[in-house]
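Weekend entry, working from home. Most of the wet-lab plans are on hold until the incubator is repaired, so I used the time to fold the two sequences that have been sitting in the queue since the last round of cloning. Logging both here for the record. First:
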Amino acid sequence: MVFVGEHVLPTIASGEGGQLTVHHAWGTSPFLPRSGTIASEALIRAIQLAPGALHAGSHLQLRTMLIRQPASLKWVHLATTGTLGSSTAAGKDVTDVKLGTVRILGNDVPTEEVSTIQGLLAELSWWHGIVLGEHSDTATVGPIYSSWYPSRNAWTPCPCWVIQLTTGVGSLSWDSRGAEGPFLNRADGWCATDLSDVGRRVLGYPGGITASSVVPQRYIILSDSRGWIDDIRMVGTKLTITSSRPRLDGQFCTIDGVDLDGESHKRIVELEEGIATVDLGRTLRGPTVHLFTQDEQLLDRFEEHEHRLTWDRSVLQPQGGSAVGVDLTRTLENGEGETVEFKEWIPLERHEAKSRELLDTIVAFGNAKGGTLLIGVNDYGVCVGTAKPLMRILAKKDLPDLEARRDSYVKGLQKAIAEGVSPHVSVAFRWRDLDGQWVLQLVVKPCADKPCCVTDTDRFLVRKGATNRMLKRPEFELMFRRSRSDDPA
């Protein structure tokens, strides 16, 4: 059996011709569930066992980020991360780096010294003694959330568990003057553009820190360094999977996908010297690959289909292409424009103003050069994600988890666009993991039968700069003639 916690989980078995058979069984593991709340005892046990079982290192690398208030000159806690790895400060003094109004403190703690949840909380608050001159009470903790991420995630290159420890402390108001950046670290030779950039560089923390109020964050990151999917290539009908640990004996991978005719293909293949190549006989349009150890422990997962892409590049379209070739980080930095639109959230109800804005933008892109619409990004280019509205708005539906709600949301948008735009405009949907937040990327192709319009209002729009405007009559007539002739659009 594979994976963790008290869950019904798949195990693998090979049938005739390498066909994959999936069974389910109850299983337990010293590690943590892929998602959900966990007990404090389970977290402590995982921290103590991870160095040997996950090759994760024997020290908890603690990094804390503070910001100084201009009026009171007091330091306010923004985030603390504890990453399991090899010691970088053993035998050295605690690191304390000041970048203007931002302060970064570091300390390494052996995992054997973390034996209780109270002890862990004390270690996460170790900076109190340096900054405040005293240790505050850290004996309480709220719900503890555990999430597993495959390789190439926002936290680590390898698969990892990210555990968030919550407290009863709400949002803390703080004066953001002087916190805009940039922040220079001459000693280490880098310059961060803003607070979020400092968090990514120093803490490995992918969350955005931009508002004038903040909930102090505390995370434990357990890296699984046993092995992961290093590369996947598909040439024609052959799929090649490469492991990061070629000398790790007995690795298996399972392949599950659908070809262009909708036929399912399932295989189980053993890696030889870290490489497995299988000829599926057909070109896949959406593969899912799992990597297992010899005793059927899950190591890593890669997934690519219509709604989801695990990595920042496509296996099926390695040269890029409109659906997966967009550099999202650069897109956010450049802001909205002729081919880019940001939406913090789009409701599925057609009568909502934001829903009508979606149809307007699809039509405007369709009548122009096409474009990319990102849902989960506000007007300022800040990634806010979609998890909270998905969990809140779709809570009444009988959907088991966030992934099911993401799929349901995409189907709702597809239905709204199909019913609300005419003639047909091609839109590709991709879920993208950006700085630990799920963003839905819609790539709109130019309409093949211009001009298109919003059906219930007969609105013919076109994209000009960063706005959607109504087509003028001469533009409408010219677009109509060109789409029905051999003239270039």
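Second, folded right after the first finished:
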Amino acid sequence: MSDSKIPGFSETEIWTIQSTVDERFGKEVRLELAETELRLAPEDRVLTPCPAVFWREHGANFVLCKVGETTYRCQFFYRGFEQYGTGRETYDDLAQCVVTLLQVQADHARARAERGPTPQPQAPAPEAGDDRFKPSSSFGRDR
């Protein structure tokens, strides 16, 4: 792993992302600049700060990270337990990274709509007389 800092997104890179995203959704989408901490290689023990671009659209959240001078990673997610990549670890072509991310999400959304919503995990309903779910003043003490 290199100790050099990963450069932020250039104006050209932001324009590439913005124009591709806007074209996909047919409107101007608000992009947010952020910083993420990533393990750049599986054997790395230290997280590396990486510039990122984030946006939300059609119920999905998108993150595109810059992990090198011209190297990118991307993913989209709905909730914390619903995270999806493109099947490729990194890209050296930003336009290809953005287009692939948007295509994979559109395909996923289409398949998701066809099969219906993902069932939400639910806690079991308490049975009559079951006081495990009632507030207790003896928090932290044995009953």
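Plan for Monday: verify the second prediction. The two ends are 53 Å apart (CA to CA).
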